Amino acid sequence: MLDEIQQNEQDNLQDHLFEVETLLAWLKPMETEGEEAPAPPDATAVENHEALLHRLRQKLDRMHPADVAYVLEALPLEERLIVWDLVKAERDGEILLEVSDAVRETLIESMARHELVAAAETLDTDELADLVPDLPQEVVEDVFQALPSEEREQLRAAISYPENSVGALMDFDMVTVRGDVTLEVVLRYLRRFTELPEHTDKILVIDREDRLVGVLPLEDLLINDPDTAVAAAMKTDVVRFHPEDAAEDAAQAFGRYDLNSAPVTDAEGKVIGRLTLMAVTDFIREASEAEQLAHAGLKEEEDLFAPVWDSVKNRWAWLALNLVTAFVASRVIGAFEGAIAQLVALAALMPIVAGIGGNSGNQTITMIVRAIAMGQVKPDATRRLLRKEMGVALANGLIWGGLLGLLAFWLYGNPKLGVVMTAAMTLNLLLAAIAGVGIPMLRQRLGFDPAVGGSIMITALTDSGGFFIFLGLASLFLLP
């Protein structure tokens, strides 16, 4: 059922994108020779430029901010800015929060100072804290001056916390009550709201010093006698967080305890905000995307239609390292040119050894990085993990290496070649296991992101190591 819902959502996004691209094509017919813009559905009444703009504006007004963000990310810069200009000004802030960092930069650069200030003023304090790092300093100063004193202090507090902390994710919009009132009083109080804060599943119960004493789930508020005191109906066993807590730990707690929201308290126990499932979900998604990019050696999310030089700067570092490792691998092969010339079968078989080793190493490093991210692996577990992964590598090497050895013997009629193939495969898988555990654990111990560049480094090691092991063994046992 979930897969069907996700597929329907993706289909809807594609439909939105197609409609917007079609309207843009009518606005700006292609001039490339041999190509024509798609014909409007009503051939008898070709719409003029203003009418098309109106249709496109209406289309964007009906779309959710997240869907508009998706469309903006999928459009080249020139068309992106046309669409962005047609978005209602009061929706600018919401959409800026939804787009990727790279696309947000291009949109902000296209906006005037007063437009940015107006967009920022439509956001809640916690949302504004996410946008502030990307805004020009003069805009930030204008926004600060326009905020009420309480929200100004909240914003200062939010941007003071580290990026991946609970404080950076928490929401200041919440409902609090005292424990000495009745549920009837609470119900009357809630009816004064035009709407409750998003993801409100519980009301925070505080004392006169604003210290958290419990929570009142909405279901308990509704099913208990209205004359019951809040203190009697509330729950005191509360999962709470401090603003300095790591967002990763909070995300794990949300999954472990099936939370929809949780209070955030300071060192004295005073309520300063709350953490919602929406914020945690966004954090997990962004962390997952960052990890995927890091595995490929990309420093940050890249705008698909970014200027060439911007993309070059994002990719060059690990490509340079890859060039060095590829050169090393080529020199390893070059050192055994004589062996390859005498036994051509080596040239056909050595990519298998390197390829299987790289795949095995990537499996190991992916598992270790995931375990580190979930807090399941500590630095002192390295030896135990090494023993386990080397055992797996030894078993796989003997099984699959033996199979490949038999295949090599059958193809080339050389039993020694089969033994060398088995030995080389086993040794390279052991090397992949050591690297797959050692690289992320060492990076974690040194304070670096264990995911960054992992696949590149493991592939470099298993390529060079696999070539050296296989060709070295062949030189020792197969050549006269």
> What percentage of the residues does DSSP assign to strands (E)?
5-15%
State the name of the first-level CATH class of the largest domain: Mainly Alpha
Radius of gyration: 30 Å
Classify the secondary structure makeup into a structural class.
Answer: mainly alpha
Quaternary state of this entry equals: single chain
The CATH homology group name of the largest domain: SLC41 divalent cation transporters, integral membrane domain
- The tally of strands reads 5
Question: What is the typical, i.e. mean, pLDDT?
Answer: 84
CATH architecture of the largest domain: Orthogonal Bundle
CATH overall fold name of the largest domain: Tetracycline Repressor, domain 2
Query: Which percent bin holds the helix content?
Result: 55-70%
Kindly, what is the distance between the CA atoms of the first and last residues, rounded to a whole number of angstroms?
Answer: 64 Å
Strand order of the largest sheet: 1-2-3
Helix-strand sequence: HHHHHHHHHHHEHEEHHHEEHHHHHHH
Number of helices: 22
Q: How would you describe the shape?
A: globular
Main sheet properties: 3 strands, mixed
**Which residues sit in consecutive blocks of at least 5 with pLDDT less than 50?**
1-7, 30-37, 41-47
Our count of domains comes out at: 3
